[in-house]
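Anyone able to model this chain together with zinc ion?
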Amino acid sequence: MSKVKTTVIGSYPVDFDNLEFFKNYSNQKLTSWNKNINVAVDDMIKAGIDIVSDGQTRDPFVNIFLRKLNGCRIRNRPEIIDKIEYREPITVEDQKYVRSIIPKTHDVVGLIAGPYTLMKSSVDLFYNDEKQLAFDLAEALNHETINLQKHVDLISVDEPFYSVEMPEYAKELMKTVLKNVNITTRLHICGDVSKIIPDILGIPVDILSHEFKAKPKLFEHFKKYDISKKICLGSVRSDDIRIESIDEIVKHLHKGNDVFDGNIVQISPDCGLRMLPRRVAFEKLKNLVESCSEVYG
Ligand SMILES: [Zn+2]
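re: yes, here you go
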């Protein structure tokens, strides 16, 4: 197997049985939900993806976490109504299930919605102090990350909001989320990160993941810096139904090699694939895998 692994950022489009969806929505019954996870994982395995996710099929990304934390309730938007505390494992059972259905040759990525993005996606009716709320969320997520690391091969913290606004305490926040975490870590930020590259480089994670396919100008921006971190190269778009050809992806990977030298360790879609039709998502993953083996062998 190639040294460079193919992987995903997180979500995968799964069509629900509507009736069953509403029946399960409130009680989050696990076993009947497993068949949605099966669809996502089976597609990823069939496409040849090395490091798979559970497809984040349960809820929108932030709600998966906020729904299960003390101090938060979900209305139209999530609302913070009390001190944030960790109550129980959030994604651990799903990840254990993923592990149980994939071949031993494949790995699992554990997905954590970043504390800053969770904070910015919520209506705060309790703290009136963004920083304190962000750090309490980070503490709660640290419990989840510690529980998760026994069952996954990689932890990906997703902070899409950083492309809009990155606080000066971002480094400390990540340290809090990853305290006592000993496995490989990845930070995913989609959007235009060209202005925050020096700040991102200071975040204590092993791998950086950005959307280089939708934002090819990022190559020029990253070129200006000495990049010692490992890179997960976004290589197919997650916001466009056009399926990139293998030739096109191969060219993109060569461009990535020119800029990052030997630092590319993973290639992936730009972001979660949730918004695409399932057939399109699958074809994109398949072409990603074929391009990877063409370039990295
Ligand atoms: Zn993203």
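Residues 130-148 form the longest helix (19 residues).
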